[in-house]
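Researcher: Checking consistency across runs. Here is Cytochrome b again:
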Amino acid sequence: MSANVAPGVAARPTSYSSAQIMLHWVMAAMIVFQVVMGENIGPAWLAFRDGTTPAEADLFAANVHVAVGMGVFALAVIRIFLRVTHGAPPLPAGQSRLQTTIAHAVHAILYLVIVAMPISGAIAWFGGVEIAGTVHHFAKPVIVIAVALHVVGALVQHFVKKTDVLRRMIRPERHAA
């Protein structure tokens, strides 16, 4: 326990756990897949909305999108649980108030969207609620921008500011035996 931590209060980790790192990268791949392939659900959605039968390939693409989306949601729940129970390392020292605010805002938006998109998508798909589909559709540019800001921020921290922000999302914390 750190000397700066009150008794009974766990110290903040200096890195993410192996599980947090794995979830981060698996979810990143799934989200990129969803963004790239997500438009393939459109023809099946329109067919169902109009009371017609979608083409087999369209239905397959839609089912893959829905399944991956539900996977993102399930992993997001686990990831949030781990964030609450394990914590997250602090931002690098020397960050300006603006940098800290931006980092926290981008993370909050990412967590909000990785939960809201699967929920709105499921409500639209399984419940036929068009407004949920609209919310889901308009959340796409939000997640694209948030992911882009997240990646740029990590790269700036690594290459410009020379901090360990990127390394700690690649290698888990090691504890002395």
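Researcher: Does this match what you'd expect to see?
Model: One thing to look at in this run: Residues 18-169 form one domain.
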